[in-house]
Amino acid sequence: MSIPPRIITLTTDFGTSDAYVGVMKGVILGINPSVQVVDITHAVPPQDVHEAAFLINSAYHYFPKGTIHLIVVDPGVGSDRQAIVCQTDRAFFVCPDNGILTYLLEEIENSGQHPGNIVKIENRAYYLPEVSQTFHGRDIFAPVAAYLSLGVTLAEIGPFVPNLVRLPIPTLEISDDKLIGEIIKTDSFGNAITNISESLLSRLKIVSGWNISNCEIRVGGIRLKGLNRAYAESAIGKPLAIIGSSGLLEIAVNGGSAETILRLKRGDTVVIQRFN
Amino acid sequence: MSIPPRIITLTTDFGTSDAYVGVMKGVILGINPSVQVVDITHAVPPQDVHEAAFLINSAYHYFPKGTIHLIVVDPGVGSDRQAIVCQTDRAFFVCPDNGILTYLLEEIENSGQHPGNIVKIENRAYYLPEVSQTFHGRDIFAPVAAYLSLGVTLAEIGPFVPNLVRLPIPTLEISDDKLIGEIIKTDSFGNAITNISESLLSRLKIVSGWNISNCEIRVGGIRLKGLNRAYAESAIGKPLAIIGSSGLLEIAVNGGSAETILRLKRGDTVVIQRFN
Amino acid sequence: MSIPPRIITLTTDFGTSDAYVGVMKGVILGINPSVQVVDITHAVPPQDVHEAAFLINSAYHYFPKGTIHLIVVDPGVGSDRQAIVCQTDRAFFVCPDNGILTYLLEEIENSGQHPGNIVKIENRAYYLPEVSQTFHGRDIFAPVAAYLSLGVTLAEIGPFVPNLVRLPIPTLEISDDKLIGEIIKTDSFGNAITNISESLLSRLKIVSGWNISNCEIRVGGIRLKGLNRAYAESAIGKPLAIIGSSGLLEIAVNGGSAETILRLKRGDTVVIQRFN
Question: Which of C2, C61, C188, C234 to mutate to test the interface with A (most CBs of A within 10 A)?
Fold first, then answer.
């Protein structure tokens, strides 16, 4: 019986107009020719660790157990920032220790689980023979991910470490009649994704009798009544609030871009006001 | 003897700056780890079903028989538009029923063949366990395509349906001395592709004695004499007409972009005038 | 024992908004279903042979021995330019004969090695049955690369040829106290890559006692003192000089784009002035 090939995913801010991404794949396939390499995205805005943190957390749940996620958004390359591997119940993450796993670890911890084992990458046997000062994606992260896909264990890669750097991420303000969150990401359709999750909304409903359809949502100077269940429920060009595909409240415009039409951007406040 | 891995292609308007495409690949590989996933494009302009219809028709002929094409340009997601699988002699198409297969079905019918079998996707056994309102590409289309690649049959996916939605597509006007068509697509080189096919031009020549080299082509305020056989036959920066790689008449500029230089766009009229 | 799948890489100026790249992959997989296809980039600026020449030379070293590199930046398609396969110690290159291998061949020759065997592609048995005037990537280069991956030999593809077209590439001016080079490429981070290599700097140091840390680098109206070893050694927003990941001197800005902030572009002069 044949074992399915391991998957290594790539999430970077390298763009796709240079050879950098292709080179990382060459390094990986040189070490493990039968691995499947899958791009998540290479269009993280340059050095935007927060965006990478959001994206990897929205993606990794959908890959098979044991997938290795290589995430290289690395403004500190060549400095003394550490390189790490984090192994959770579900996956491996190979990345710089700069906060890139913040959303993912918060979510795991909020669900009451242990975030898993973490090692600092130190064993140069799993690096390329020559290590540059500017491209650890190629020289360290890619080969380490490839060796993991061959069965190398965390203990062989480096010493265990207890904690990782965390980004300051936007928190929610919850009072009796109001929930204040913010937009944490706009996607390429112009949907503005907030940090207000469907599971929180469900919980508030159960505990305090809130009902989102009985609430007003205020964002970017407009007011929306309750939630829609499909973009097409709103007229073309009209804004709506909807639970998006990541389980988060999104502000969208049917057939258009909420980012452009409502001028929404990361950091904008979103208020859910309760009437009842 | 080993069976070659099945191919699933992806054509979407998701862009590649979010995790959406990677997530669909994760879902597919979770169901069938040995399938080959190939991107056709993710840069269909948002919700531009016509462009997707053109692209998939220009591409699918070049993939091996039995390839599964997943096409998700889906402005009606979450509404009552149907999701379908269409099986032709050559390939499977998994997509919303919104006209995305219009060019492909017209071409099959024009060649006198039967367009194949179509089912409505209804069997939730082939969906992800949770289905969102906004991302059927991940929750329905990707898993159905993956199960097809494992050998699930159309009859297991849902009931057969007789017809699909068709887009209104540009038609040709043909008279004794004139052929009027239009530009249906500009590509990234700025070539302006028309709906006038080489096969039509051949047919007209046979039946009525037309000869394209004896015709004038009028488009965007310019006049071209006959057809060129290579871009390089025209001077650098000069426009020309040529049969492009999809077998359609294209307006191009040698070493430049006809779209920019001649300000051509989808919908512009192209007239072929006969002199003889 | 199973043989690892062969790799075919793709480097083109096709962009990813049309179906052209997907179609080439369909053709390749139709001929060899078990090959691994890896994108290097499809964002070479349209018809920019020099950029493609730089990119393939910076990438191919990192792929396993025997990898087949397909490079299609082909302004002369349909003219009498030749199509070739070049086999070096390390890899196969399938491309038009328009200078695309210039950097690669210079580097091989400068290291005292023989550039390898070259054939002109002529055997139509390895083409698609129909060959267009405008898309040899699909009709000739892709199938020839796929047949090479199945073990077809150079001799079967066409007659051996002695020489290839070379691009005029920027040369260095070296005097007793000055080294004058130029910027040959800016990457998507805005790093400005020069034609001054680390190995040349090492050699000059050995022979003439130069020391880069004792030199001034002048470019785009600014002066930099010596080399940094990491981006983070410079303050945020400040320029620096560093040996980049291709082993070439780069001008960068920590946390920003040297291309934008310093207005650097291909062809700009870079002077290294020696003081001692």
Answer: C188
Residue A236 dihedral angles phi and psi, to the nearest 5°: -55, 130
Tokens, residue C184 = 């040959």
Instruction: Band the pLDDT of A243: cuts 50, 70, 90.
Output: very high
What average pLDDT does chain A have? 93
Q: Tell if the CB–CB gap between B19 and A58 is shorter than 8 Å.
A: yes
> How would you class C267 by CB atoms within 10 Å of its CB: exposed for 0-12, middle for 13-18, buried for 19 or more?
exposed
The Cα of B248 is separated from the nearest Cα of chain C by a number of Å equal to 11
> Chain B within 8 Å of A67 (Cβ-Cβ)?
yes
Q: What pTM was computed for the model?
A: 0.94
CB contacts under 8 A, C 87-146 vs A, are none
Query: What is the C-alpha radius of gyration for chain B, rounded to an integer number of angstroms?
Result: 21
Q: Which of A22, A37, A138 sits opposite C40 (nearest CB)?
A: A22
List alpha helices for chain B, DSSP H: 20-31, 49-59, 102-110, 136, 142-149, 154-157, 198-208, 258-261
Q: Is A5 on the interface with B (CB under 8 A)?
A: yes
Cβ pair C70, C11 in contact under 8 A: yes
Q: Give yes or no for C3 touching A (CB within 8 A).
A: no
Distance CA A84, CA A141 (A): 9
Paired strand residues for B186: B192
Burial class of residue A26 (count of CB atoms within 10 Å of its CB; 0-12, 13-18, 19+): buried
CA distance A12 to A32: 21
> Is C187 in Cβ contact with A33 (below 8 Å)?
no
What φ, ψ does residue B80 adopt, rounded to 5°?
-95, 15
**Pick from B162, B149, B160: which is nearest to B122 by CA?**
B160
CB within 8 Å: C29 and B38: yes
Residues of chain C found within 8 Å of residue B36, distances taken between Cβ atoms: 29, 33
pLDDT tens-digit profile of B48-106? 999 999 999 999 999 999 999 999 999 888 788 999 999 999 999 999 999 999 999 99
